[in-house]
Amino acid sequence: MARPKRDDDLNAGQDSFLDVVTNIVGILIILVMVIGARVHHISLTAHQEPAKPVDAVLESEVAQLDESLASVESEIDELQMQKRLVEAAIEGASSAKLQLATAVSAAKVELARRRAEADEAQLARAERSSRRRELEASIQACSLETESLKHQQATTAEVLAYPTPIGRTVNGEEIHFRLAGDRIAYIPLEELFEMAKRNTHRNVRSINDMASRIETVGPTQDFALDYVIEAKVDQARGQVLIRSREWVVRPTDPLAGEAVADALKPGSRFRRTLGGVKPDTTVTLWCYPDSFAGYRQVREELHRLGVPTAGRPLPEGAPIGGSTEGSKSVVQ
Asked: Do residues 264 and 185 both lie within one domain?
């Protein structure tokens, strides 16, 4: 069975607790005072303690750094100056390069000109040398030919002599030949005129039908005739004259006739035509520029035969024709 508590025991426990609390508070106060005293001592010591001198090593390093900085700044200034000098040198070099390029270009042009002059001079010398060799060879050939002629026997050569070229107008009979492409062809002009007369009388019914009308007859012997007829009234006689005002003979075959070389042979058509005409008949040769050599051959043959000859040179492409205002052939 529990023992009942007494009042004396309770009071004794409360006193013990209060003692403990009081002791603790006292200890805390003492600690606070001790800490405060120490802090105050440390503060006073910090204010009263004199500054220590700067370390000599640090001062030496700082001095060395200052010297290095000054040296670096000096080097930088020197580099800046060198940079400006280099830039100026680059600018001068660019200008000199441009001048040099201009001078090189001018020198190339001058060199090309001198080379061209030298080539022309060399070519001229070569031409003169070649011409000189040609002349020397020609002189040598002439000398050899002269020596050869000295030892040759004299020979005779036939020289064709033509009569003095005094012209006279052809009023008698006349026959015509065309020389073109080194061929000679007989032009049947009289036959074509007869055909034109018959055609005009057959087709004209009134004077109005004869007013500047173009007619064509042929072809015959590889030639055709184009002509313009006109009528002229003679009131005094009461007659109407019909005549051809203009006429043109054109070949229907560009290869009409025969080659000149064949025509000059015996039995050719050219010689047969000449054999059928009267001795005093004039032969008129209508000649184009491409047949002048053949014209000379035919003329020489006609002169040898004693046949009167008249020449009618024509420009290339011109037709063979005539008119009432035209001229007659002239024989020499």
From this structure: yes
